Amino acid sequence: EDLMLQMHNEHRLVRTTRFMYWGTKTPLTERMAFTPLTDAGLELVRKAVDEWCGENHRGEDTVTITPHDLDGEWWFLIQHGGTMSRLAEAKGNQKTETLFYRPGKDDVVVYNTERDEIRIHAGSKAEWELYRKEFGLRLRSDPEYFSERKNFVLDPLRKDVGKALDPDGVPDIKGIKLQELELKFGGDFDDRIIRKSHDMVASAAERSKDGKVIKAVPDTGKMVRAVFEIEFEKCTKPRRVTIRIPDTLNVGRTGDVKAVHDWLTLREFRAVNGDE
Hints:
The chain is α+β, with helices and mostly antiparallel strands and 276 residues long. Helix content is 26%, strand content 34%. The strands form two sheets. Strands 1, 2, 3, 6, 7, 8, 9, 10, 11, 12 and 13 form an eleven-stranded antiparallel sheet that branches. The protein has a two-stranded antiparallel sheet with strand order 4-5. The longest helix has 17 residues, at 39-55.
């Protein structure tokens, strides 16, 4: 029964696809050696989350936290109550009855020991902040330990877009296309443009005529979001991956995260935290 529950919970983790990332500003030479979170430490996190849920109309004594060691990372599945909902039930004889219930919610916190960072999937900014501080306190003895939001950059696209999209060195990825780019120009009107294509690089090459080179990635504007289509090995359909700087990654499924991280690290899309 315990094995079945563990497999069920890990399946729920795989469906989680949007994460926000926080690193540390602590220099590499000053970081403590990591020790796994104890049952006592996990219970302190659970109590803090349960108290927050009670204060924010999400029920009391509903919180469970289950740790999982997956692909060299610590995943914490946090299950808790949501806000009350209601549902109309047709009873027949022209009668309708209203049912009140509290839905369950799944949040996830992942700690990457190699990069000394956490990523969080949650439903609100308040929950992100709660988990960031609680896990910073219990994992690294400081509620503000994970406070660096510079986790992704898009500079490699402008530096050398061909190299940036090259999957060589990542066996689980067959091909990568840049399909969307959002550029911010700021100013009083917060000007932005969004460029889209099935393949921005191939399109730019096709439109480059008469010696006039058209760049897939413009030289001006701050790149704030990029959407990629990635072909994974053993998958018949490509999946979309979105980066929004400085700290948000959306993947097609959580099972793709490791390969995506390997590519982003290899091509220097991952910002360096704490040792600049």
